[in-house]
Amino acid sequence: MHRRLAATALACTLAGLPAAAVADIRITDDAGREVVLPRPAQRIVSLAPHVTELLFAAGAAPRVVGVVSYSDFPDAARQLPKVGGYASVDLEAVVALRPDLVIAWKSGNRNTHLDRLTALGIPVFINEPRRLDDVAGSLRSLGRLAGTDEVAERAASAFAARRDALRNRYAERPKVRMLYQIWNQPLMTVNGEHLISDVIRLCGGDNVFAGLPQLAPTIGVEAVLAANPEVVVASGMGEARPEWLEQWKRWPALTANAANNLYFIPPELVQRHTPRILDGAQRLCEQLEEARAKRPPR
C-alpha cells in the first residue's frame, strides 16, 4: 500500500512539473546558441539543400515538411513543399507550414530571416560543418532533434569509418599543391577553414590558397599563376565538366597544365556538407594519386 501511494505521489509530482523538466532536448548549434525543444521535432523546415540531405540521412525524412530550392537528394526531397531559396527564404511560406523547428545554414541564410523566425517563436538550429568530423556530428545532432538517434548514429558511424579508411590510405601520401576552383567569373576558391580544405587534407593535398582570410575568396589569374599549383580541380554547375576549366591551357608554364592535371568533380559531391562528400573525396584522392604518378622519377 505504501509503495502504491509513493508511486502515485511521484507520478502526480512529475505530472505537475513543466514538460521541460522531464523531456527537454537541449543542444548547442554551430553558432554556439542553445536550442531547446520540449520534445523531438515533428514538423521541420530545412533552409539549405545540404540540411535536407542530412535530415534524410539521419532518419528524419518523415518529419520534414518544407525545404528550399535545389533540395534534390534523395529523390523524395524533390516532392516536398518549397519555401524559396536558401538566400531568399519565403518567411510566410515557412510560417504557414507550422514548423516546430527550422534548420538553417550559417553561411547561406540571411541573418535577418533567421532573426525574424526566432522572433516569431520558432526554434532555429544553425548548421555549419567546417570539418569532416562535423558532418558526423551534424547527423547526430539532427537525429537527436528529430528523435531518430539510432538511425543517425548508424549513419554517423558509417561516415566516420569511411572517412578513416580514406585518411589512412591517402593523408600521408606525398603532398600535392592544388587549387580548388568553385567558379570562373569571378574566379573563386576556398581557404583553409572551408570543409573542402579538410577533404583536400584527407587526400594528401595542399590548398595553395589556404591562408586567405575569406572562407570562399575571390582571386585573380595572376595569383594562381604565382602560386603555380600542380593540380587544378574545378566544380561548376552540374554533372558536366565546365568549359572554363580549359582556360588554364592558355598558360603552358602552369604546372597543372603542363602535367595535364586539370580535373573535375561534380559540385554536389564535394560542395554539400553531407555523407556524399566522401564520394567527392574518393574522386579527389584518386585524382591526386594520378597526379603523383605523373611526376618524373627522382
UniProtKB/TrEMBL annotation:
All copies of domain Fe/B12 periplasmic-binding, residue ranges: 43-292
Protein name in UniProt: Vitamin B12 transport protein
Residues making up the signal peptide according to the UniProt record: 1-23
Pfam (any one): Peripla_BP_2
The organism of origin for this protein: Azoarcus sp. (strain BH72)
Lineage of producing organism: Bacteria, Pseudomonadati, Pseudomonadota, Betaproteobacteria, Rhodocyclales
Keywords associated with the record: Signal
